[in-house]
């Protein structure tokens, strides 16, 4: 019988590379009273059959930094523990067969420059010099990433485990967790330990690092962990002449394949376009230790044929071993990390989508710091488990979605790619109406929404391309309608919370950086900041009564917002937060004739005097009592109208019919994005992030620093303001009228990399690409106004330099006359 301790501070479930990394990093932070439990032996689940690739460059700066940390850690672990990790920097070659892929690789080079990584273009001949086995006659080019490497997954896991043990962590193998112990006496449950087949362990914190078993472990605690297993195939060949330990990693994404050296031969794997999900997460077999699934040569054929085409030597090489090892994937191809919103003291790190070895060091460090600090210490928004709701925990939905996600792993990563599987999931009461208007639908947090409206009779589909797509013309028409007449936006997917109670104002004054103690009927734009002064949310709060408020946030952040409000309210707060997202539809009526349109359907006074900007009132609209808030995210006179869902179709129909005489048209989220960028309005998770404060964002006006009212993050924000920003969000317009930008492009100042485009679109009012970028001089220097104004700027558009004009002021209507005449600028 295993001699388990009766209690510990932290219990970690899962002895793969992720669990061992969390244990290692907790110990290095001084938390050594840690027990790690593995149902088999270390690395026996998914880790042992991982390919072991360590590619540093990722889709965002935050995720790239995590992998960079992993490489630093792996490079020093052997000296620290005496155990090898198999980590070796060998470089990587990625090749392109198509023009679309070449554009992607050129954008990759620019992203590497933005993150300070080495990456250089290669001709096909130069690629062959780096990788002599390569067939190049059908290649257009390639890139070279000298920092790429590989590690031995099992050895890396053992080294992390030894490093943790050396500091006092106890690791118990062959102990299976059968339940998570919960204290449900308070309003919110808390994890208090685990039940195992060898006895119970009390713990302050439970950490779920169970790999593809993580969903089932989460279910024990009532926590949604949205992942599903899929079969992942690769083969290992016999020895090949010319293959050596320092042969680079080869990626041929147009052929769905990757290749690395393996004991003098080659490991050949890939991500086939039609993936093969495995059993449901609650049906995973036990035991399943160092096991593989049956060979499936028919399914692997597309990968093998592609690999033979790229490396002809494979046609003459024998196969030593076929690996079919299941691993877990998430609905959006980003891993899951963080504190579970459903249960206090329960943390998750799982669903690594075939990049677990590369991510393990950074992810383990990030989660350990989160546990110790009580909140994230860095920007983890893209991986935060709170981006999903319980809806995304359905196994049938996950099976369909994960098959698509895995199949897209090596597809061209179009910036506006919409998932096609497992839809629809959530529909507003206006869904049928916008479909009848020929909406091109996208999804956000499961909501079906109109991206843009195609002309009637034209197929309502997106075309994916790097250059200007056909749908931009439809979007331009919507922008023009908004700027010149009036447009109607279906925005029901907004997250909406009713906040009430004796201490509601006290709580909001602490949680919100802006002053919420305003007259009833006033709407306040405000950030919610973390203890580092960075953004946790970007919301509007409307005071609807002395002790009642309506908070409106983005569609994607419902779970995150509600969790943040609960965790960070002052102790003993007497207040109530109710999610009314599904109870209220939202119709945006925006444009210079928005007042005229509303007036045709309402008997109420909507004049400037009766209904000033930034106020909210109950009005009658098409015979229905609604809440109308005069506010805008597009930079024009307009109202957001909040309608009970049952009445929404009638109100929308009345507005649509009345709008015909005014030239109104329906408009979608692509138009909103372009219009807000012309006005320089920021968006959470793009311009606004947990590592960025209102100082860098240029939004200090939305903070109550002129008052003596304390709020979360205030002291750090004041210090940052005094020191000056090292980076700054700026508006820009492209000086070349034909350039089409997507976001993510490298920004140069006087020829030197200084930042990256955070958002971009085609601005119809400006007749050019417009966007926001985060730039700075680097090092300890600050991004002063003088530094910003003194430079000449361009963006790297797939290897071509496009000059841009940069400003701290909005390119369109910088003084805000369109929003509220004679009152200055207003925004949400």
Automatic annotation (TrEMBL):
InterPro entries xrefs: FAD-dep_OxRdtase, FAD/NAD-bd_sf, FAO_M, GcvT/YgfZ/DmdA, GcvT/YgfZ_C, GcvT_C, GCVT_N, TrmE/GcvT-like
Superkingdom of the source species: Bacteria
One Pfam family matching this protein: FAO_M
Membrane-crossing residue ranges in chain numbering: none
Domain called FAD dependent oxidoreductase central: residue spans: 374-428
Domain FAD dependent oxidoreductase: 9-370
Domain named GCVT N-terminal: residues: 430-706
Segments forming domain Aminomethyltransferase C-terminal: 727-813
Gene3D superfamilies assigned: Aminomethyltransferase beta-barrel domains, D-Amino Acid Oxidase, subunit A, domain 2, FAD/NAD(P)-binding domain, Probable tRNA modification gtpase trme, domain 1
Family stated for the protein in its record: Belongs to the GcvT family.
Name assigned to this protein: Putative dehydrogenase protein
């Amino acid at each position: 019988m295993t001699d388990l301790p009766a209690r510990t501070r932290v219990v970690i479930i899962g002895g793969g590379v992720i669990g061992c990394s969390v244990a290692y990093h907790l110990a290095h932070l001084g938390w050594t009273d840690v027990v790690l439990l593995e149902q088999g032996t270390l690395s026996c689940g998914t880790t042992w059959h991982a390919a072991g690739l360590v590619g540093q460059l990722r889709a965002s700066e935050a995720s790239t930094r995590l992998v960079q940390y992993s490489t630093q850690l792996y490079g020093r672990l052997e000296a620290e523990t005496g155990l090898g990790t198999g980590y070796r920097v060998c470089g990587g070659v990625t090749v392109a067969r198509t023009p679309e892929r070449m554009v992607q690789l050129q954008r990759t080079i620019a992203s590497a420059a933005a993150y300070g990584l080495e990456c250089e273009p290669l001709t096909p001949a130069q690629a062959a010099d780096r990788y002599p086995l390569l067939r190049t006659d059908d290649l257009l080019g390639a890139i070279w990433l000298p920092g790429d490497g590989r590690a031995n997954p099992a050895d890396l896991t053992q080294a992390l485990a030894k490093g943790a043990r050396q500091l006092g962590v106890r690791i118990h193998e062959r102990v299976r967790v059968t339940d998570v112990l919960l204290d449900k006496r308070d309003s919110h449950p808390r994890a208090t330990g685990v039940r195992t087949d060898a006895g119970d362990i009390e713990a302050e914190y439970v950490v779920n690092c169970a790999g593809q078993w993580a969903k089932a472990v989460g279910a024990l605690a009532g926590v949604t962990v949205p992942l599903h297993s899929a079969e992942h195939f690769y083969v290992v060949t016999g020895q090949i002449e010319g293959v050596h330990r320092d042969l680079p990693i080869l990626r041929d994404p147009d052929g769905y394949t990757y290749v690395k050296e393996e004991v003098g031969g080659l490991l050949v794997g890939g991500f086939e376009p039609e993936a093969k999900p495995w059993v449901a997460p609650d049906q995973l077999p036990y035991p399943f230790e160092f096991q593989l699934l049956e060979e499936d040569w028919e399914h692997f054929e597309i990968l093998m044929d592609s690999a033979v085409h790229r490396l002809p030597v494979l046609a003459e090489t024998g196969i030593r071993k076929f690996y079919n090892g299941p691993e877990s994937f998430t609905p959006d191809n980003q891993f899951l990390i963080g504190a579970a919103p459903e249960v206090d003291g329960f943390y998750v790190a799982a669903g690594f989508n075939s990049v677990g070895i590369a991510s393990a060091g950074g992810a383990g460090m990030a989660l350990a710091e989160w546990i110790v600090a009580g909140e994230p210490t860095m920007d983890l928004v893209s991986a935060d488990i709170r981006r999903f709701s319980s809806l995304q925990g359905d196994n049938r939905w996950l099976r369909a979605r994960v098959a698509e996600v895995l199949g897209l792993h090596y597809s061209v990563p179009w910036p506006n790619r919409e998932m096609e599987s497992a839809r629809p999931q959530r529909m507003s009461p206006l869904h049928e109406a916008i479909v009848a208007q020929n909406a091109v639908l996208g999804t956000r947090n499961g909501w079906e929404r109109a991206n843009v409206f195609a002309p009637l009779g034209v197929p309502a589909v997106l075309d994916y391309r790097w250059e200007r797509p056909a749908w931009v013309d439809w979007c331009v028409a919507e922008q023009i309608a908004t700027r010149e007449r009036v447009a109607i936006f279906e925005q029901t997917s907004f997250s909406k919370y009713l906040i009430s109670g004796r201490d509601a104002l006290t709580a909001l004054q602490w949680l919100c950086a802006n002053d919420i103690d305003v007259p009833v009927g006033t709407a306040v734009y405000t950030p919610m900041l973390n203890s580092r002064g960075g953004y946790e949310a970007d919301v509007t709060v409307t005071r609807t009564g002395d002790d009642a408020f309506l908070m409106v946030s983005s569609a994607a952040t419902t779970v995150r917002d509600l969790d943040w409000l609960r965790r960070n309210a002052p102790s003993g707060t007497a207040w109530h937060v109710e999610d009314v997202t599904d109870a209220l539809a939202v119709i945006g009526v925006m444009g210079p004739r928005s007042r005229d349109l509303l007036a045709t359907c309402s008997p109420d006074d909507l004049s400037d005097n009766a209904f000033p900007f930034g106020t909210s009132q109950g009005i009658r609209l098409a015979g229905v009592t609604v809440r109308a808030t005069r506010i805008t995210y597009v930079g024009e006179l307009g109202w957001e109208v909040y309608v009970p869902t049952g009445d929404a179709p009638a109100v929308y129909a009345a507005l649509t019919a009345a709008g015909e005489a005014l030239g109104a048209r329906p408009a979608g989220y692509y138009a909103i994005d372009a219009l807000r960028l012309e006005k320089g309005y920021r968006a959470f998770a793009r311009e606004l992030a947990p590592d960025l404060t209102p100082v860098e964002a240029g939004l200090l006006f939305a903070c109550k620093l002129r008052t003596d009212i304390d709020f979360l993050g205030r002291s750090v924000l004041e210090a940052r303001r005094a020191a000056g920003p090292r980076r700054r969000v700026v508006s820009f317009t492209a000086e070349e009228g034909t350039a089409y930008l997507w976001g993510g492009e490298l920004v140069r100042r006087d020829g030197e990399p200084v930042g990256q485009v955070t958002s971009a679109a085609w601005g119809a009012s400006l007749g050019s690409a417009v966007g926001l970028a985060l730039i700075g001089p680097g090092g300890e220097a600050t991004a002063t106004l003088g530094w910003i104004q003194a430079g000449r700027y361009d963006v790297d558009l797939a290897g071509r330099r496009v000059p841009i004009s940069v400003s701290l002021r909005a390119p369109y209507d910088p003084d805000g006359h369109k929003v509220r005449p004679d009152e200055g600028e207003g925004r949400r």
